[in-house]
Amino acid sequence: MYVAQDGADGSNQEPPGSTASGGEINASREPDCDCDIASCSSGKRPDFLFPSEAAYKDPTFAAAHLRLLAVKTTCKDRWRQVINEADRIPVKHLLTLQEGVSETQFAEMKAAGVRLVIPAPLAQKFPESVQPELTTLEDFITSVRHLHIVAS
Fold it and tell me: Is the pTM higher than 0.90?
């Protein structure tokens, strides 16, 4: 797993592991993870690349086995920043603590290839029509672990 580090250039305005409200999003590292500072071909630095930066940069590694997870406390218009990260990964996952988004905003995100990842307790805060398309953090982690097994 690749984990971005805050740069002095302010490129990560919202560091992984923190929220504007002072809370924390804890991202645990598996002991055998590849965690390096890097940037993608676009020069943008995603918060997390799975399974690793090396896999992302390896053109022979199947893009279908890559995942990007961006972290934003709230979506607002900042979700659009995620679209230009990690060009090899068509579907970007966005972990947020925002309590719901409008159906219109969700449709825009979906059309742009952004999938929301949320802590399970927040699902009820989203419109009923959106809830089946949300990914819980637990489900995202499970899918990444499965990809790691398949890609090995």
Answer: no
